[in-house]
Hints:
The structure holds two protein chains of two kinds. By secondary structure, chain A is an alpha+beta fold.
Amino acid sequence: MISDALYVTLRVPDPSALTALAALRLMGPKAPVRLERGRVWWVSGDPGAFESSQGVWFNPNKERGLRWNAAGGFGERRERERWVFVRDRSGSPEAGALRSMRERGLPEPLGLLSATVWRLQAPEGVSPDEAAQAASVVRSAFQGLLVNRHSQAHRVGPAPASLTELEQVLSELKREAS
Amino acid sequence: MSGRIALLRFPGVNCEAETALVLERAGARVDWIQFGDVLDPDDYDGFVLPGGFSYEDRVRAGAVASRSEWMRALETADEAGKPILGICNGAQVLVESGIVPGGPARAVRLALAANGGEGRGGYLCRWVHVEVTLSACPWLRSLDGTRWPVPVAHGEGRFTSLDPEVIAGIETGSLCPLRYVDPEGKLASGGPWDPNGAVGSAAAVCNERGNAVALMPHPERAAWLRQVPEGAPGEWGARRRSARTAAALEAPGPGQALFDAFVHAASGVRV
Lengths: 178, 271
């Protein structure tokens, strides 16, 4: 089945990511040296979904979307990087996009999955997995930040190497969240 | 004796002025603690985190503020059993910091998730009804059984947890001092008077000792009779409709009693 993916970020430095990074730095030396926030979309069945319905996935005035590229994923791969995929246990990030597509008379994709992504780069001397664990799940006031497991599901791993891998991560996340 | 209350102003808080007024009317001496100020827990008898936003609610509502240095002072105050009240965004900060519901190593055991339930997604601002129920909170015991109208204004107000012990504590009552009810006092759960689908229709959750309360509605917006809608059902609506003079409208509204109880408890700490 044909599938495609899109990674959406702000065109300007993301205030949420900057604030999160500053808060994480208060927590100690395992804090990432770089933190970026985005939203990833995965579709199947409609190879033109991202061309025909740009306004559904992002607002081009303030955001940019990077299409999946078979050779290099979403582009720049960073060393010591981990992706933290996050999905709220309530609600559906896909529902709004599907509603927008229906309103515009666009064909709905066969499959659609989405999640928030925090891309974090570990400091030298700290393993990327350790840095991701320290930054992700909130354990107390001074441990973790990006995920409250009581209301959010998450997955941590390297940048997805293929669309199949991305689909697998997003599917698992959706299952866990529901 | 008046209690000395610290009112914590994170960047983005916007309910501090009315909260201070209500606390002062309850007899408190209120110090506004500005972002960046040092907070010495020994200087105060009680602590209030007012509503609004903190750090634009980046990451999650209350998440960044709950990593503030002030939390160390609040933890010390909590250990001393001093009353701590978080209202709306303040409640989110207390939950994200693990002060509420507390427990081993102050682990975060609760979340305030996005509003849920049929037709109740997104931000919701309206009057609801709450009932004070017997819980671990000592300073709300004098109000046990009272029922009153109060506004809510939140997008993430649904108390939820994966921890069965916390769920049980909320459902059976020890951790839940206020619940959403309908105007007749029936639990609001899932019905039209339920604003967010919280477990046990919880409008507030306290810690195990009961001194710290995370409260989602805004009692400071119901602290004068003039603030109660004329069409409100029940006793408070009737009082509002019968108030004909400016002086009558300035009488305490339904939310005042909660602040009176809080300040009374805070005053007792230093006796």
